[in-house]
Structure formats: structure tokens, C-alpha cells
Write a structure and sequence with these properties.
The chain has 560 residues and is of the alpha+beta class. The protein has helices at 2-23, 46-58, 78-90, 94-122, 125-137, 142-150, 171-188, 192-200, 207-228, 232-251, 265-272, 280-291, 295-314, 320-326, 331-349, 361-378, 383-401, 415-425, 439-444, 461-466, 475-481, 486-497, 501-510, 534-537; strands spanning 31-33, 36-39, 259-261, 350-352, 411-414, 431-434, 451-452, 513-519, 539-544, 548-553. It has 24 helices and 10 strands.
């Protein structure tokens, strides 16, 4: 009895600790501080995008909030639809749902589902407990490299992939894990409809996960049919495939080839990029062998780079090979091994058009499932190995959390600018024009912390804070979705610099611009807001403070 209570206490304690630890990457962002609204880590870009998109969905629109006049395409909307639905049902602001409420809920559910999945599969509470621990706390070897090289603990994504601690920073990824685990448990229970439902919705939650799961269902379904002479997995595959294809058709652009062939891009950039491993001599050697077609040395060099990539990212998860090599083959193992194989092979040979690094997200699923293997393996090992994991986990977690715990964030919306954005949010609907993101000014501002969002990254913050579509912002996500935004930016720069009144007014009319949101500090004209004056363009100033001027255009503001 005492042993049972102790294990239950260990599980509850583990899940609470894991939930709190994961949530620390999120819950401090999006809150109003004395300096304004703060955003730690990637939340200054990714979080802002999801808030902007969800607000657009709340308004009942599939229009792209950062590319006014066009609809959303080539993007999974599942998580953002969930945010929009919860906002409608509860009236809780989307920002609070995104940063403070959903993160701990997701973390809690993932921990519970991992435990239940492994317990159902393996029948061992000890294995299930350690698998949950690895899912929550495993990390790469990056912090060891940075400590030996620079004397500091950092380097979570030194080998390219994010680690467990950053799961919630990518909410669609976290939600996809919930659906995959729920689907796997449904498979274990032989519940056909629930299995199809959970796996069938993945394409609109995280497209990468849908590709991996469909491939895994197909391969494990063939295994089950030929070895066990049953068709359950095949039926789940067919049902899931049909739902995924139907949902995919709603947001897919026929003109976009999502992935392009570029073998070993991650290995080459791992060695060449200074913000990754940055082993220049190795990079020079491997590319020299490649260009010189010195086959043996090329294979040896790229093979070595691959091993560094794999082991560097896996960290102590490598002990999971102990289970993999000894495990009894069954349909679930074939399912997981197929995901592992695809999650490595795809990014090794293909990159995403426009944003090649985005394809590393396939590998996140490799690390997730290998965390489970590692937990199963370590549960049978000696206590000193378990202590080593705990020590390793502490340093790995700290190497990431130190970027989320400082008093001041990396990015912000100042109090003055928030007042301007809030004013615009209260105005009637209309397309907003704002200055294009200037990467050179942003580079110059890197030494300051916190940086205003307009000098941090190309983000969706004007749309997110005003609930209005913007003519052009967040080129990062526009690249991911395959929008040709460059010509629109050229039009904007011509409008800003033109001295021809007819040209200026024609731009505003043709693009249905209703508001101009102009941050004084980042004018492309070195002090001037626009080359033409507001009177010449028919603009009416409706707001001004120390940081921002807002103009209105159109009949309601005296324009033509």
C-alpha cells in the first residue's frame, strides 16, 4: 500500500514540476509591466502571430491579418481556431489564453497522456514514470559545448533542434503531441472512430505531424496485416487520410511546392553557422570533398556530421537505443520507429521553401518519442545513472530558462505605443498601413534590452494589438506560408518616398488603406514620416504621442 501511494505521489509531483517548468517559458509574456508589455524569447514573434491570427478568426474571417486582402493559405489553423473558440465561449482575452492559461493545461495533459500511453503499452508504472520525466526534462548536449567553449550554460538549439523545455513555445506542436498521444491510446483500446478522429485532424494542427503519423500508420498497418493478419491500423490509416486530405484542401495553395530537395542543409549549416556549432574547419573540409567529388572522404565527413547532429541533439536520450535494440517488435513499435525514421530522413534531404530551417520541426517528434524510449531504458538502470539524468536535466533546463527568467524581457511594446495601439483598436474596421520592417535598424538595436517589437523582428504586433488587418507585416510567417510579399513592400516604399500627389493617393485608394500607423523612430526617410504632407495626401491626424502618429484616410476623415 505504501509503495503504491509513493508511486502516485511521485507521478503527481513529477507532473506538477514538469508543468511549472514548461510553463515558465510562457506565463511571463504578454503582461503589462511598468515599461509596457513584455515578451520573453520567441514569444515576441510566434506568440504575437498566433494572437493576430486568432483574433482574425474570432471576427469570422479567414483573411490573412498581416497581408490584407488575401486569405490564409498553407497554414494549419487548428490551434488558432481553438484559441478563437475558447475566447468566444469564455470571453477571456486571447493573450491571456495563449500565455497564461493554455500552457499549463497543455503541459499537464501531455504528461498524463505520456504516462498512460507507456503504462498501457508496457504495463510498467516505473517505465511510464521515467518516460514522463524524460519527456519533460531531457535536453541536448549544447550546454556542455558552450560551457567548455565559452564558460556559460546555454546552447539549447546549438545542434538545430529545440528541446523539451521549449515545447510550449510552439503551441501547435504541443497540441499535436496531445492528439498523437490520444490517437495512440485509442489505437491501444482499438477504438476505430476516436483513432481516426485524433489522427485525422492533425493536418490542421501541425502539418509535419500529419505527414509523420500517416506514414507511420501506413507502414505499421502493412506490418499488422502481413504478420498479424488484421486490418485495424489500415482502416485507421484510410479514415485518417481522407479527413486529412479534406481539411488540407481548405488552406492549400496549388501554386506552392512546400518542400524542396536540398540534401544535408542542416549538417552544413550546423558546421558553418556561428549561432550553431560553428566548426568552420570541418565545414570547409566537408564541402571541399563534396565539390571535389572525393566520395570516400565526403561520405566520412557527412556521416560524422550526422552523428554529431544526432547525438548532440539527443543528449542523454541516446540511452533509448538500449531499449530500441532489445524491444519486442509489435505494431506500436513499428509505428514509432517509422516516425523516428521519417523525422530524421525528411530534414536531412528536404527543406521548406522560403524558410529552410523550419523543416527541423520534423525532428522534434524524433526527440519526443526517443524520450519515451530513454525513459523505458533508464527505469532498468542503476541509481547512479538516474542521478546523472537529474543533474543533466537541471543544467539543461537552466541553459534555456535563464533566457525567460530575467527581470527585463528581450522585446516589448512600450506603454506609449500601447496607448496608440489601443486607440486604433477602438476605431472602426479598416486596413492599416505601417512601415516595413527594417532589418538593419533592428540589427543596430540588438544591444538594447528590451527592444520594441518593431526593432526586434518582423512581427504581427500591429494587427495583434489593434484587431485589424495590416497591409504588410510579419514577413517571417509570410515566407513560411509562401506569399509573394516583396512587390507589396516595394509599393509601400515608393508610396513613402513619392512626391507625386496622384501616385500617393492612388496607392491609398487602390489598397483600401484606412489608417496609417507610423512609428516616428523607424521612418525610412530619416525623420520625415512621409515625403508628401498629410494635407496633400488627404490624411487626417487622429492620434499622436511621443512615439506614434496615426492618420485616417477616406470619406470619414475628409479624404477623397
Amino acid at each position: 500500500m505504501l509503495k503504491k501511494v509513493t508511486k502516485q505521489f511521485s507521478l503527481v509531483s513529477l507532473i506538477i514540476l514538469g508543468t511549472i517548468t514548461w510553463s515558465l517559458t510562457m506565463i511571463r509574456s504578454g503582461i503589462n509591466y511598468s515599461f509596457g508589455y513584455g515578451f520573453w524569447g520567441p514569444n515576441g514573434h510566434d506568440g504575437i502571430w498566433h494572437i493576430a491570427l486568432s483574433k482574425s478568426l474570432v471576427a469570422g474571417s479567414l483573411n490573412n491579418p498581416v497581408f490584407a486582402g488575401d486569405i490564409i493559405k498553407n497554414y494549419h489553423l487548428g490551434f488558432d481556431l481553438l484559441l478563437a473558440l475558447l475566447n468566444k465561449l469564455t470571453t477571456i482575452p486571447i493573450s491571456i489564453l495563449y500565455f497564461q492559461i493554455l500552457p499549463p493545461i497543455f503541459a499537464l495533459i501531455i504528461g498524463l497522456l505520456v504516462y498512460l500511453f507507456v503504462l498501457n503499452w508496457r504495463g510498467s508504472k516505473n517505465e511510464a514514470l521515467w518516460s514522463t520525466a524524460f519527456v519533460y526534462f531531457s535536453s541536448s548536449f549544447g550546454f556542455i559545448v558552450t560551457f567548455l567553449r565559452d564558460g556559460i550554460f546555454t546552447g539549447e538549439s546549438m545542434f538545430w533542434s529545440q528541446q523539451s523545455i521549449s515545447t510550449l513555445v510552439n503551441p501547435p506542436f504541443a497540441l499535436s503531441l496531445i492528439f498523437i498521444l490520444a490517437g495512440l491510446i485509442s489505437l491501444q483500446k482499438k477504438n476505430l472512430l476516436l483513432s481516426i478522429l485524433f489522427f485525422g485532424l492533425l493536418i490542421q494542427i501541425k502539418a509535419y505531424s500529419a505527414i509523420l503519423v500517416l506514414g507511420a500508420l501506413f507502414v505499421s498497418g502493412l506490418y499488422q496485416y502481413y504478420i498479424q493478419h488484421t486490418t485495424f491500423y489500415i482502416r485507421v490509416f484510410i479514415g485518417s487520410l481522407i479527413i486529412n486530405l479534406i481539411l488540407f484542401s481548405y488552406t492549400k495553395s496549388d501554386s506552392l511546392a512546400v518542400f524542396i530537395w536540398q540534401p544535408m542543409w542542416f549538417l552544413e549549416t550546423l558546421m558553418s553557422y556561428s549561432d550553431r556549432l560553428g566548426w568552420e574547419r570541418f565545414y570547409s573540409a566537408m564541402t571541399t570533398y563534396k565539390m571535389g567529388r572525393i566520395w570516400f572522404k565526403e561520405i566520412l565527413a557527412y556521416g560524422t556530421a550526422f552523428i554529431i547532429f544526432l547525438i548532440g541533439n539527443m543528449g542523454l536520450r541516446i540511452i533509448g537505443f538500449n531499449h530500441l535494440f532489445k524491444a519486442k517488435i509489435d505494431s506500436l513499435l513499428v509505428f514509432i520507429v517509422t516516425i523516428l525514421s521519417m523525422a530524421v530522413i525528411i530534414p536531412m534531404f528536404f527543406v521548406q521553401k522560403g524558410t529552410p530551417w523550419n523543416t527541423i520541426q520534423f525532428f522534434y517528434y524524433y526527440l519526443f518519442f526517443f524520450s519515451i524510449f530513454a525513459g523505458i531504458s533508464i527505469s532498468k538502470m542503476k541509481d547512479w545513472v538516474k542521478v546523472l539524468f537529474i543533474i543533466f536535466a537541471i543544467f539543461g533546463i537552466w541553459s534555456t530558462l535563464q533566457h525567460y527568467l530575467p527581470k527585463m524581457p528581450q522585446a516589448m511594446v512600450s506603454s506609449e505605443e500601447y496607448i496608440a495601439l489601443d486607440f486604433l483598436a477602438k476605431q472602426p474596421d479598416g486596413i492599416v498601413f505601417t512601415y516595413p520592417f527594417d532589418k538593419y535598424k533592428a540589427k543596430e538595436a540588438e544591444k538594447f534590452s528590451p527592444r520594441p517589437l518593431y526593432l526586434y523582428e518582423s512581427t504581427s504586433y500591429v494587427s495583434a494589438f489593434t484587431d485589424k488587418p495590416v497591409f504588410l507585416e510579419d514577413q517571417v510567417n509570410l515566407n513560411i506560408m509562401g506569399y509573394g510579399w516583396e512587390s507589396r513592400q516595394e509599393e509601400m516604399l515608393k508610396f513613402i518616398s513619392t512626391l507625386d500627389i496622384a501616385t500617393g493617393r492612388e496607392f491609398l485608394i487602390q489598397n483600401n488603406i484606412k489608417y496609417l500607423y507610423l512609428v516616428k523612430e523607424i521612418s525610412p526617410l530619416s525623420g520625415e514620416l512621409l515625403r508628401l504632407g498629410s494635407t496633400e495626401l488627404g490624411l487626417k491626424k487622429i492620434f499622436e504621442n511621443k512615439e506614434v502618429i496615426i492618420y485616417g484616410y477616406g470619406e470619414n476623415f475628409g479624404g477623397s
